[in-house]
Design brief:
By secondary structure, the protein is mostly helical. The protein is globular, with a radius of gyration of 21 Å.
Length: 466
């Protein structure tokens, strides 16, 4: 997912906002950063529950597990901090792979992107439906139709292009503010508490249980790469300011996502909130225990569902944008059929949107609208991209004779590879890897038949800049 899963508003912002005074640039950074981090922030809605389910409900091991998750998020973020410095015009792992190992390797992270966008849409829509059902339990029998209706609505909104992207930043801020209010109330004066035991039998040693559980919750890391490619939208800024925007966004992402995750995890343990019932989610149960059934709980569910829909909407923007870039232009030969690049007057590649709509609908139905069924597949494709990016950065450091940095990147790559391997050992996530490799191979074959047009390494930055 090296391409921004959260399509930021920066491309639509006036040039004067970037070239003007400091306050104007601050407003642009706010809009850019909070739009870009909408996706990783939304992952809080299901990642903690995924870890608890993998721990078989053992609350005593939940905080160590999520702490390990945040530690690995820090490692991945550090790599993208380097990528932003090296590629200030955007490009992410695809650009790094192409320049480190040759253009043919670009297709591996691109294939991971395509799969990841579909999963992002599917899991975000399913989680949004779950948030609505937790608030209105009577809708539970209609889970799949509800999710499909939300999917169609979000897809339809992409017809109008990027005009509403400023709302993404607003949704992120609203969720963070409401979430902080719930946390404060939960730690100081909770409405009630759950009945889950602090410790359960995970069926194995505590260390092994944590090691096997944390990769499932690495869905939290999806979206970490977004700033490294979204900066391609900042055509009104020079390279120095793009680096500042990209790195500032990465730092903000780490603080907000890490802080909310650990705080919600600690509150779940404190209030004994275990695995939820069929018609609720753990994060909804946490909010209900902290705030009770009143307006704050309703606001929490509303803002979380809107944030999840924003994450899906961003992938409906970025995913078709990637297919459009791969389809090429009159001046730049592509590797996909030109029909995928056809746009309406709002510059939306509508046939590419249809492709993602159909794929997301398929996985939502296959998972019966349950986001926890999809979480198992989620962190596979994106970790392929993380791994490629880390290995590429290790090679760059080695070429520059920066041995310490090369070792750091290599160790980080080993940690990411371990996480990927553990997820794959679960069996079904192999489908995500197979889809990634199949798409990457098909794109490489089409690129070869097209005469290997140059510039394929920059396809992600072109997709964002467009």
């Amino acid at each position: 997912m090296p391409l921004s899963k959260t399509a930021a508003v920066a491309a639509a912002a006036p040039v004067t906002a970037a070239r003007g005074s400091g306050p104007r640039r601050s407003v642009l950074f706010f809009a850019f950063a909070f739009a870009v981090i909408a996706d990783p922030v939304s992952s809080v809605a299901y990642a903690i529950e995924a870890a608890l389910r993998a721990l078989h409900g053992d609350l005593a091991l939940l905080l160590p597990t999520m702490s390990l998750v945040i530690g690995l998020v820090v490692v991945v973020t550090a790599n993208y901090w380097q990528l932003v410095r090296r590629f200030p015009k955007g490009g992410g792992a695809a650009a790094a792979a192409g320049r480190a190992f040759g253009p043919r390797w670009t297709f591996l992270p691109i294939g991971a992107l395509v799969v990841d966008f579909v999963l992002t849409i599917g899991i975000s829509i399913a989680a949004a439906a779950s948030a609505v059902i937790a608030l209105f339990p009577g809708l539970a029998p209609w889970r799949i139709p509800l999710a499909l209706v939300l999917l169609v609505v979000v897809a339809a909104l992409t017809w109008f292009g990027h005009g509403g992207r400023l709302l993404f930043a607003g949704m992120t801020v609203a969720f963070v503010v409401i979430c902080v209010a719930v946390l404060v109330l939960g730690f100081t004066s909770p409405h009630t508490a759950g009945h889950a035991a602090n410790s359960a039998d995970p069926g194995r040693s505590a260390v092994l249980a944590v090691v096997l559980a944390f990769p499932v919750a690495m869905a939290l890391a999806t979206g970490v790469e977004a700033p490294s490619t979204a900066i391609a939208q900042l055509g009104q800024l020079d390279d120095t300011h793009r680096r500042r925007f990209g790195r500032g966004t990465l730092a903000l992402l780490l603080v907000i996502v890490g802080g909310l995750t650990l705080a919600l995890t600690a509150l779940a343990v404190r209030l004994h909130i275990g695995i939820p019932g069929a018609d609720s989610t753990q994060i909804a149960d946490i909010a209900h225990a902290a705030a009770g059934p009143g307006w704050l709980y309703g606001a929490f569910q509303l803002t979380s569902s809107l944030l999840l829909l924003a994450a899906a909407s961003s992938s409906f923007q970025a995913g078709p944008g990637l297919l459009k870039a791969l389809a090429g232009t009159a001046d730049q030969p592509g590797v996909l059929p030109p029909v995928l690049g056809r746009t309406n007057r709002h510059h939306t590649p509508y046939w590419s949107v249809v492709v993602y709509l159909a794929a997301a609908a398929l996985i939502i139905v296959a998972a019966a609208g349950q986001e926890q069924e999809l979480v198992l597949f989620y962190a596979v494709a994106v970790f392929v991209s993380f791994l490629v990016g880390l290995v590429a950065m290790a090679r760059f450091a080695s070429r520059a004779n920066k041995k310490a940095l090369a070792w750091v990147n290599a160790l980080a790559a080993a940690a990411v590879a371990f996480t990927l391997a553990v997820n794959l050992l679960r069996g079904w996530p192999m489908l995500s890897l197979a889809a990634t490799l199949l798409i990457a191979g098909a794109l490489y074959a089409r690129w070869t038949r097209a005469g290997r047009p140059t510039g394929i390494e920059d396809v992600e930055s072109r997709a964002e800049a467009a």
